[in-house]
């Protein structure tokens, strides 16, 4: 199936979700992400403003603020994204796409310094391949990760980090829990930022053929499950 047909299929499924079901899904997503080691060890977190039936991360943002974490919203600049601090006092306006974004962008934060990026998507598959809206903004912004991952050293670090992170989230590698310092060591092995796709579970499709410019996601979290590209899911 073509990318356009997959995009249409997933958007149609997403648009059928009722308002009540959207709220439940947003809470379930927040519960799932808050319990993940990568979230717990992240301070600078990029979020997004949900539109067009995208799963909302508002409950997660509230919990991040309560935990003393700093959230950032993406702003389109020159075919790429910058990330601006976002809190309850941030002045907002709608951009040319009708999506609310911060008015003041003078204190933008470098994408490479983010710890965790919650990445919206239209469709995804079991291999953590993603289809977005088609603008390519996230791919261009995080292309530096793709360049890094093309080196043997970074590939090895990513695989090791994915495996150790998944083991940490399962709390065991044999039958004994990992020590806190081992969890922290595993997380340090993962290149920053960690790209976490987020979506409704109904947006999953059978297979997506990635393009050469597509930046890989580290994991995908939905209201019902988590998928990761490491040895463990």
Task: Itemize the secondary structure elements and their pairings.
Layout: H1 3-15, H2 19-34, H3 37-40, E1 44-46, H4 58-66, E2 70-77, E3 80-86, E4 92-94, E5 100-102, E6 116-120, E7 123-124, E8 130-131, H5 137-141, H6 143-149, H7 152-170, H8 180-188, E9 194-199, E10 219-222, E11 226-228
Parallel strand pairs: 1-2, 1-6, 6-9, 9-10
Antiparallel strand pairs: 2-3, 4-5, 7-8, 10-11
Helix pairs in contact: 2-4, 7-8
Description of the molecule:
With 233 residues, the chain is α/β, with parallel strands linked by helices. It has one domain: Rossmann fold, CATH 3.40.50.10420. Helices cover 35% and strands 20% of the residues. It has eight helices and eleven strands. A seven-stranded mixed sheet has the order 3-2-1-6-9-10-11. The chain has a two-stranded antiparallel ribbon with strand order 4-5. A two-stranded antiparallel sheet has the order 7-8. Helix 4 (58-66) links the parallel strand 1 (44-46) and strand 2 (70-77). Helix 2 (19-34) packs parallel to helix 4 (58-66) and helix 7 (152-170) runs antiparallel to helix 8. The longest helix has 19 residues, at 152-170. The radius of gyration is 17 Å and the shape is globular. The two termini are 26 Å apart. The model has no long low-confidence stretch (mean pLDDT 86).
């Amino acid at each position: 199936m073509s990318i356009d047909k997959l995009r249409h299929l997933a958007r149609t499924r997403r648009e059928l979700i009722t308002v009540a079901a959207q709220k439940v899904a947003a809470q379930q997503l927040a519960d799932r992400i808050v319990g993940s080691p990568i979230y717990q060890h992240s301070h600078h977190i990029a979020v997004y403003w949900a539109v067009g039936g995208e799963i909302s991360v508002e409950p997660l943002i509230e919990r991040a603020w309560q935990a003393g974490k700093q959230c950032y919203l993406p702003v389109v600049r020159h075919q790429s994204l910058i990330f601006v601090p976002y809190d309850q006092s941030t002045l907002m306006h709608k951009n040319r796409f009708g999506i609310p974004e911060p008015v003041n962008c003078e204190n933008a934060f470098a994408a490479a310094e983010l710890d965790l990026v919650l990445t919206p998507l239209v469709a995804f598959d079991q291999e953590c391949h993603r289809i977005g809206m088609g603008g390519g903004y996230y791919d261009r912004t995080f292309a530096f990760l793709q360049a890094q991952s093309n080196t043997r050293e970074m590939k090895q670090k990513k695989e090791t980090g994915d495996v150790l992170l998944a083991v940490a989230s399962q709390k065991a590698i044999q039958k004994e829990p990992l020590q806190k310092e081992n969890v922290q060591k595993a997380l340090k092995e993962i290149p920053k930022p960690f790209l976490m796709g987020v979506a409704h579970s109904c947006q999953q499709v059978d297979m997506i053929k990635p393009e050469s410019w597509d930046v890989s996601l580290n994991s995908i979290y939905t209201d019902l499950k988590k998928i990761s590209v490491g040895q463990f899911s």
